[in-house]
Write a structure and sequence with these properties.
By secondary structure, this protein is α/β, with parallel strands linked by helices. The protein folds into three domains: 10-98 and 111-157 and 221-386, Alpha-Beta Barrel (TIM Barrel), CATH 3.20.20.80; 398-599, Rossmann fold; 611-668, Immunoglobulin-like (Sandwich). The protein contains 17 helices and 25 strands. Strands 10, 11, 12, 13, 14, 15, 16, 17, 18, 19 and 20 form an eleven-stranded mixed beta sheet that branches. The chain has a nine-stranded parallel beta sheet with strand order 5-4-3-2-1-9-8-7-6, covered by helices on one side. A five-stranded antiparallel beta sheet has the order 21-22-25-23-24, with helices on one face. Strand 17 (550-555) and strand 18 form a beta hairpin. Helix 10 crosses helix 14 and helix 11 (326-336) runs parallel beside helix 12 (371-385).
């Protein structure tokens, strides 16, 4: 069954009426209608309000809220309220509380104070979700379900007794025998051989480096443990409301959970984006990269931005506001990159509690005096004009490989040097972003037939299947760029022997003898063989041996001066490049410009720097988005493109003119 959302751009945010007297609710709804709000997430942190004690439930207030919203044509993504157990539950069952790797029990007073493996927590959560599902399964306001909230956001892992037992069960299901586990974990090293399952614990604080495969498996287990919570709630909701879509809110490049494994369980992807407006250029790229990652998890269905801030947040050391115009730009960037929903945390800024200084659609001042609310109303009116883009998709020719298992593995202890996996992937994405070349993020096992260029940054952990997929992509005519520290270990964190990267040695036409990681502040230099241009490099230098590949750049310094730094290999009908170091921005620009030309990838439109161009497509046509981040107007040549600017209603041809901090959405004439 296809579970769909309403056929318009979603606009709204989290609504927490339980924080306010009932006398405020009618005014809330009046202001929501004034702002163009059409959907709200309700009840996310309301467990204690819904169930004040073990035997007592109170749904009357929620009934009245949902009835009020339904009467005013405002839809609800109803939450299951399981993100924060009430204090009475922890008092009655302290075993549900999570434990850190140091053995510290985390207490009540914040949120997410539960072990994901606690059978007691699961039992009470399931009972609550069942009551909510049965009570509201036919309510006219409810159009979707919001399960829990930001799973693992603050509690990345748990080492309680329940988690320890569950970890052992997970390992037994995976390995079947201790012999298989010992082989996979390499327990012959440091006398770690296990003779009984009960000898195995979660990787707690130890005298020195912990077994890396144990740590990797614990990351996998933890992601699965939280996913089991989601699936438990999902099963209840699907039974009660098979027609309603389910989701939870992801958090972009969030390391603890393998979102790619989770995505299949969600009917649509939703996520929370909070880039820091202090650095506006960095913030807009951070938002773009997050949107691209989230969209790529379910590329055949638009995503929803579930949370963002209208202005300032409350949790950074310094919480700067978004200056006028930036909230609109960030919101429309969501739509430009494949989103069909723009939502915020939260409707009304809290009066009390830890997030009372987090901005809302309604601030602490009267709305008529608030420049934020004026922008909220203006955005709501604009989004209504963009209804034609609903359901359209983003199609790209460039993919960056991101694999959570490789991320977990490369950042465990005891490596030759430090690699920030997500930052490296986002840095490479940044070059394409600045050039307005669209990018998807893919798993190394993904179907790559639609892409011209695939970039694999530091794909340290590589399976036989993934290596074969990348090799086949190149052999069929694709262009691959792999970077340093790729293809070093298998799924068990065992080095694949035969010369790094053994599984891609033929594809890349080279092998790596050793590495020279550099400390901060130390640099080398590379020289491109054809242009003779030189550029600085840092962080890491692979010492390469050529087989069928040729060097397109060499190192200029250190004991390996003159040896290959960047290579190119013709393999089958395609080309595989290898980058053995981290280039400065000019060097990376030179390399990626050459590779992009080779792969025949380009932007939908040529535009000045600081103007973001994207394209969405549907059966009815194409939509080009142009976002001007400058404080001055820009003029963009359209070539043969003609169409209508959906925001202004004007016809456009030859040139597209944008005011400072302005946006255009062009419905292209066929």
């Amino acid at each position: 069954m296809t579970r769909t959302l309403p056929p318009h751009l979603l606009y709204g945010g989290d609504y927490n009426p339980e924080q306010w007297p009932e006398s405020v609710w009618a005014d809330d709804v009046r202001l929501m209608r004034e702002a163009g709000v059409n959907i709200l997430c309700v009840g996310i942190f309301s467990w204690a309000k819904l169930q004040p004690s073990e035997k007592r439930f109170d749904f009357g207030w929620l009934d009245r809220v949902l009835d009020l919203l339904a009467a005013n044509d405002i839809s609800v993504c109803l939450a299951t309220a399981t993100a924060s157990p009430p204090p009475w539950l922890s008092k009655k069952h302290p075993a549900i509380l999570p434990v850190t790797s140091d053995g510290i029990v985390l207490q009540v007073g914040s949120r997410q104070q539960y072990s994901p493996s606690s059978a007691i927590y699961r039992r009470y959560a399931a009972a609550l979700v069942t009551r909510i599902a049965n009570r509201y399964r036919k309510h006219p306001a409810v159009v979707a379900w919001h399960l829990n909230n930001e799973y693992a956001c603050h509690l990345h892992e748990c080492h309680s007794e329940a988690s320890t037992v569950a970890f052992r069960q997970w390992l037994r299901a995976k390995y079947k025998t201790l012999a298989a586990l010992n082989a996979a974990w390499g327990t012959a090293f440091w006398s770690q051989l296990y003779g009984h399952w009960e000898e195995i614990f979660t990787p707690r604080r130890a005298p020195y480096h912990t077994n890396p495969t144990q740590c990797l498996d614990f990351k996998r287990f933890t992601s699965d443990a939280f996913l089991e919570l989601y699936k438990m709630e999902a099963a209840i909701l699907r039974k009660a409301t098979p027609h309603l879509p389910l989701t939870t809110n992801f958090m972009g490049f969030f390391k603890p959970l393998d979102y790619r494994a989770w995505a299949a369980e969600l009917d649509f992807i939703a996520w929370d984006s909070y880039p820091d407006p202090v650095d506006e250029a960095s913030a807009r790229h951070t938002g773009a990269a997050g949107h691209d990652l989230m969209r790529s998890l379910k590329p055949e269905r638009p995503f929803v931005l579930m949370e963002q801030a209208t202005s300032a947040v409350n949790w950074r050391p310094t919480n700067s506001p978004k200056r006028p115009g930036l909230m609109r730009l960030g919101s429309l960037q969501t739509v430009a990159r494949g989103g069909d929903g723009v939502m915020f945390f939260q409707w009304r800024a809290s009066k009390a509690g830890a997030e009372k200084f987090h901005s809302g659609l309604i601030q602490h001042i009267p709305p008529e005096q608030s420049r934020v609310f004026a922008e909220v109303k203006a955005l709501g009116a604009e989004l209504k004009k963009l209804t034609p883009v609903v359901g359209s998709l983003v199609r790209n020719k460039v993919a960056i490989v991101v694999d959570w298992h490789a991320w977990w593995a490369v950042e465990t202890e005891s490596k030759p040097g430090r690699i920030d996996y997500a930052a490296w992937a986002q840095s490479l994405h940044g070059w394409f972003y600045e050039k307005n070349i669209g990018v998807d993020f893919v798993h190394p096992d993904a179907d790559l037939t639609g892409f011209n260029l695939v970039v694999a940054p530091a794909l340290y952990l590589l399976t036989i299947k993934s290596a074969a997929n990348l090799d086949s992509f190149v052999a069929r005519g694709g262009t691959l760029l792999a970077t340093y520290f790729t293809g070093i270990v298998d799924e068990n964190e065992h080095v694949v022997l035969g010369g790094y990267p053994a599984l891609l040695r033929k594809t890349l036409g080279l092998w790596v003898e050793e590495w020279a990681p550099y400390p901060d502040g130390r640099t080398n230099e590379i020289k491109f063989t054809r242009s003779r241009q030189t550029h600085a490099c840092s962080q890491w230098c692979d010492l390469l041996h050529l087989e069928s590949a040729s060097a397109i750049a060499t190192y200029s310094k250190d004991f390996f001066a003159g040896r290959p730094a960047i290579t190119k290999n013709n393999h089958g009908q395609g080309t595989a490049y290898y980058l053995g170091t981290k280039l400065d921005s000019a060097g990376l620009d030179q390399l990626l410009t050459e590779i992009s030309r080779q792969a025949d990838v380009s932007a939908p439109l040529a535009a000045p720097a600081g103007v973001e161009i994207t394209q969405r497509e549907s059966a009815s046509g194409k939509f080009i988005f142009a976002l001007n981040y400058h404080d001055s107007p820009v003029k963009i040549p359209l070539g043969k493109i003609r169409g209508k600017n959906l925001i202004t209603g004007d016809s456009v041809s030859k040139y597209l003119k944008l005011a400072p901090l302005d946006v255009a959405v062009v419905a292209v004439e066929s």
